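Exercise: predict the fold of this chain.
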Amino acid sequence: MHNQTLPQSMPTQTKIAMIGAGFGGLAMAIRLLQSNMHNFVILEKASDVGGTWRENQYPGAACDVQSHMYSLSFAPKSDWSKRYAEAPEIFKYIQDLVTGFNLEKYCQFNCEVLATQYNEQSCDWKLILNNEQTLIAQFVVFASGPLHVPHIPHIKGIEKFQGKVFHSSQWDHQYDLTEKNVASIRTGGSAIQYIPEIAAKVKQLYVFQRTAAWVIPRDERRYWNVEKKLFKKLDWFRKLHRARLYWSNESRVVPIVQPAVMKYTQKLAEAFIKFQVKDKNLVQKLTPDYIMGCKRILVSNKYYPIFNRSNVELVTEAIQEFTENSIITKDGKERKIDCLIYGTGFITDPRIYLKSFQCSGEYGQDLHDAWQEGAESFYGMCTKGFPNLFQLLGPNTVLAHNSVIFMIESQVNYILQMIELVKNTQSHAIVVKDQVQDRFNQRVQKLLDGTVWQSGCVSWYQQDSGKNFALWPTYTWKYWLQTKKLNPADFRLLNKTAGSRAA
């Protein structure tokens, strides 16, 4: 845990308030400092920094993006141990960022924002906090990210179950799985990482699969000492390595936007399953019935081989109910278990995970009402009707092929430009024009049509209606190019009214 040397008192007023001390919030803070802006505060509901990487400390937790692409270009790390870093190393990198840039004094821990209200007269935001305090901020940056509220489905009888129950993001390291009968629900990104780690330890492992996932090999290796020395000594060598990783990732967009091409890639993935799993019936069960890429593509060398173990059973029957000590599937079969692990991921629709969070903008408009038909914004950063409110990794800016850190950096630089525009025009607030946001979202949805993501399956990328609210629909370099320089004509600039409180 990152320890503060001195507890910081909460200010009553600030220029910029960041909500969340994960990668996004810290990246924003560092770039503010580098731009000689110091009047800001980071509000974090937990007791430490790290966000996703603080929460997800389950066995085998690691990143699907290469280490050198999953770190800030303006705060690089030259000594990553492996091509794909594991959670403890990423968490340590985040803590080192806090120390290196002296961010402790800007952080307010155990501080949850319960509501935000925009004041049209004073062009600022009132933040209502969990400690019965309020904070006035000219600008607010949502940096809470989309992966912080665990999704825990209700299953009949779960309240009767007497065994151990936890979600993968709330892993109980005190509970010994040795010689236990364990059920793991779902086979998403987290599950395929922890399942191989616990399979040899448990007495019996039941893997409950609702929908098979496409899993491809992981080009994993440790970095040689000589490479790490060169990365540290020769900055151009590190940048060249990072650039090579970036463009290799970026090439993955081609089969995504052209599903016909993806079918050839899919053949290789099918061969990978057959190579790693001996039982032909299991191969069939583990092979998805949708086009590869429609749901998130997972990366692992360890997942498929665990189904060759005698103590691992793949269960594809739906769950009917729980009893005090067992789980019953709809075919009537009962399996005794000691422990249940939810590998069910997170609630990603902001309309749901922000449902208890009140955010009112111009004319008292509530954000939930603005997003009633689906979450929309302008480049995932600003929403019409909500001046001076910015978001990192907002609607349609999450990725399925490259590093979200690249997107965060582009967004941080764009937000800095919006703040500078307000300052340089002697205005007090900025908000995207309604028609500009509407045109942008029409363009995004048009680009998504015909992609593999919209090829017929149901995924976390979509809301209930099938609309894809999550993903950027094309190359990330296009996003960078489009957000590199702000166009003032896209925004309304606002000023305080007479008699409003001082900034």
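Check your answer against the key: Residues 72 and 472 are 20 Å apart (CA to CA).
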